[in-house]
Amino acid sequence: MNVEESELLTRTGPGTPCGELMRRYWQPVALVEEIPPGGAPLPIRILSEDLVLFRDPEDRIGLLDLHCAHRGADLSYGRVEDGGLRCIYHGWLYDVQGRVLDMPGEPGGGTPECRAGIRQKAYPCTVRNGTVFAYMGPGEAPCFPSYEFLSAPVDHGFAIKLLHECNYLQANEGNIDLSHLTFLHYTRFNRGIGGEVGSRPLPTQKTVSGRSAAGSEEFDVELTGHGLRSYKLRRDLEEQQYHLYITQFVLPNCTTFPGTFRGWRGYGVNWHVPIDDTHHWKFTFEFRRDEPVDKEKIRNSRAGMTPDYRALINKENRYRQNRELMARESYTGIGKTTAGRYNFQVQDLWATEGQGPVQDRTGEHLMPSDRAVVAARKVLFNAIRDPEANRFRLVTLNEVIPDSKHWRERARELEGDVTFGAAPSSANP
Ligand code: FES
Ligand SMILES: [Fe+2]
């Protein structure tokens, strides 16, 4: 990637092409627990916009521009009362739709005409799986997607967020990259497939099959209507078996992973929402189909966090890397919690923050094992900038073809030929 391409995929502020793409999708912006009933308004920054999230006295959720339309004061210090949020500078009152209900400093609270002429920027919100989602794009909000992990009964779902001090794309690509699982997340104590707990060989060591985990991996990727499906196959097991790992990239900033409840029971999702171009929230969702989840247990299985969702193990303390653990049981020496388990989140945090605030992708050396990352970038490029990607060429034909020409070759010729009024260059005379 050159500098221009990298900027196109990583900049998400107002008016940027990728930012405009993201604003066409509902995005998670906060956890419901951050705005309890009767609680204070919450200042949040999303897609480089400063906003305030609040719950009005009737329990409706509003997301407004942080700065008051009157003279710019910070609304997150405001009073929640009288059907909305009131600025504490001169008392203007806003409802969740950004309408000015009252200007108490003006005669009669401001004329209806005057109040109607001013509208605080406001984005529609909805709540799913303990999370507030907002639509920050133009026009009517699109239908909310009926993802299972967001529409499951509330006690079957779990949601959390974690601050990442780096661009969203790094963590998004980290999820799409299935090659790293074998290395970054290796611990001796994970139950290796075909191996006993506690005996899992290092990714570069040979196993029963005579192959190492790392040396026996194959990757595949295919386009889907929502983005990409990625496959990883590992053949270091007994004969006639292989370990299959499937994940999804859902445009523009969301990926799935097997999660805590494997197989048919459920899966997890990481949704990387830019705060600005050098910070993002990783919202993680889990859901379970067969029974309610133990939310406390999942929360405790993660390494500690501050009340504002920053990892206690972070770059300030060098992710508490422990070289003794590295020698004995873990590939990285990073992420062992006080409960004695390893936490993948911290390992991913190290990997993605370590690439820099915005990774310099001009110096990469991409390999076949990175094919899913490359494919995801292409899908994202197309979604951002290629109107052609929205032009459908439905090749349909009834024609006699010489034996020397393959039918797929003929279809491809016609695919590019969409001039009107004259016979296309590839027309069969
Ligand atoms: S700045 Fe908010 S009411 Fe004046
Ligand atoms: Fe990871």
Summarize this entry quickly:
The chain has helices at residues 3-10, 17-22, 112-116, 148-151, 168-176, 181-184, 295-301, 323-328, 344-353, 371-385, 407-415; strands spanning 27-31, 42-46, 49-55, 61-65, 79-81, 84-86, 93-94, 100-102, 122-123, 125-128, 131-134, 157-164, 217-224, 227-234, 243-250, 254-257, 266-276, 279-288. The protein has 429 residues and is α+β, with helices and mostly antiparallel strands.
What does this protein structure show overall?
The protein is of the alpha+beta class and 429 residues long. The chain has helices spanning 3-10, 17-22, 112-116, 148-151, 168-176, 181-184, 295-301, 323-328, 344-353, 371-385, 407-415, and strands spanning 27-31, 42-46, 49-55, 61-65, 79-81, 84-86, 93-94, 100-102, 122-123, 125-128, 131-134, 157-164, 217-224, 227-234, 243-250, 254-257, 266-276, 279-288. The strands form four sheets. It has a seven-stranded antiparallel sheet. A four-stranded antiparallel sheet has the order 2-3-4-9, with no helix packed on it. It has a four-stranded antiparallel sheet with strand order 5-6-7-8, with no helix packed on it. Bound molecules: FE2/S2 (inorganic) cluster (FES) and fe (ii) ion. Fe (ii) ion binds at residues 174, 180, 184-185, 344, 348.
**Which small-molecule species are bound to the chains here?**
FE2/S2 (inorganic) cluster, fe (ii) ion
Helix content percent band: 10-25%
CATH architecture of the largest domain: Alpha-Beta Complex
Which residues form runs of ≥5 with pLDDT under 50? none
CATH topology of the largest domain: Naphthalene 1,2-dioxygenase Alpha Subunit, Chain A, domain 1
Can you give the mean pLDDT? 90
Number of helices: 11
Overall domain count: 3
Classified by CATH, the class of the largest domain is Alpha Beta
The secondary-structure element order is: HHEEEEEEEEHEEEHEHHEEEEEEHHHHH
Strand line-up of the largest beta sheet: 12-18-17-16-15-14-13
